[in-house]
Specification:
5 strands; 8 helices; alpha/beta; homotrimer
Chain lengths: 193, 193, 193
């Protein structure tokens, strides 16, 4: 062994120790970044109850689910109309009855956001979709459920409007804003529709 | 020392050097990922001045702040009505006066996005919230400020509409789209409401 | 060499092997995080065809592009009106003709979302912007194209409404929801406007 090699070997324990320390720091930083990193997840707030906007929400949701994302749709306020199968008046306060009577009683009677003309706009949009073989909203809701899209009714909105379980379609969850945020904060894409 | 062990030791300096180089690359990649990684931050654009949509914005903002997120709300266009305490006409151009006269003069007179019926819709929504002990919009604005939610008035909208400081509630910042983007690009969730 | 130093050297191959294994794990975790990490990218869905909302979309898009982000704007449904230079009726079905006749024939005739008053609102907003030297929508569209903002017309909406290439301004792409999601999932900010 020559002198150079001996010096090289003498430095070995220090170099290893330095490596171990650097690696420990990297592992800690990586763990933090992993915690901040988004999951394969998409979260949508469906606030609107307009047929055109709701269709856009379901196109995004089913598309994302087909691409392997975990998808959550939070239906709140006017968006709750999408999840209704019926309007019931018993057990509602005066204001809740008024709200129910003026709201669509199911996804089939959603208005459009522009040019609604007392419901004609919604019918035209549905006719155009049928002519072009675009799935109907009801077909998209079924497809979303088949693809494992979580459909969640906003608890506060339900409580405010007095909407009973029996007024809603099957296979839903109910949750609050905290649950929405837990999903949204870990999502690659979140949208308010 | 046997022959195998000697060979093992001879490889040590090369293995250490290889490790050092790999670790250097990992550190560089990690620094880049850290730069791209979102902070614990939520950024909302409040474009709408409709009571129902604004309430949704404040529920998300206060919920996120309570969960430890840094929250920024950028109020722009119709959303500026939320921040007004008064309409003043002096110092405004003709169009700005028209705009002011047709806009709500404070958060208390915001319309709802659907079924407004000349203001009745907003009153009904407020009554329903009161019956159900949901915080009023004004309580939510206070809560947001207590929780450290940054409320920012869009400079360009203010300038366009000629809105003076004295027309706005206290504790606000004013900033432009660059400031909004700086927050939004580093946020885990950004929404346009 | 003393006894301690010899023991220290004896541990070297094990310590190096341990380091190599830890580093391999870190590299794998880092590669995963890199895959989840957002690019310098902003993706906007322009669903609305209202002048006020569309202006907000272009302010965000051009601002983000100026800050070095890759920006994609997906124009869908009412938002397609922004990209039109003309309405043509030939080759359209009955419903598509009705839709075309009731929609703006270019970005110059977009309504505003509130206080439109049969088009007066849009004219007032444009006058206010001119007085304050804010770029017009058409100037912002040009600026966006100069800054390399990708403007994409939603294929399904085009097909539904029967919109031909000759009805749209130059320099556009057409794509579906999958293409939108591919961009959005890798974006630091995505918004539905």
């Amino acid at each position: 062994m020559g002198a150079t090699l001996e010096i090289e070997f003498a430095a070995v324990p220090d170099r290893i120790q330095a490596l171990e320390e650097r690696l420990r720091k990297v592992e800690n930083r990586l763990a933090y970044v992993e915690g901040q990193s988004a999951e394969d997840r998409v979260t949508l707030v469906v606030f609107s109850g307009d047929l055109d906007r709701v269709l856009a929400a379901f196109l995004i949701a089913t598309g994302a689910a087909a691409m392997g994302q975990q998808v959550s749709m939070f239906f709140t306020f006017w968006g709750l109309s999408v999840l209704k199968k019926d309007n019931q008046l018993s057990g509602k306060t005066f204001f809740q009855k008024m709200m129910a009577l003026m709201s669509p009683d199911s996804s089939k009677s959603l208005p459009v956001s522009k040019m609604n003309y007392l419901g004609v706009g919604g019918k035209i949009l549905r006719s155009m979709m049928k002519q072009k073989n675009v799935s109907s909203l009801e077909e998209m809701i079924s497809l979303a459920q088949e693809l494992g899209v979580r459909m969640i009714a906003c608890e506060m909105s339900r409580d405010l409007m007095g909407i009973a379980d029996s007024e809603l379609i099957d296979g839903l969850e109910s949750a609050g804003v905290g649950s929405f945020l837990a999903d949204s904060l870990n999502s690659r894409t979140s949208m308010f529709i």
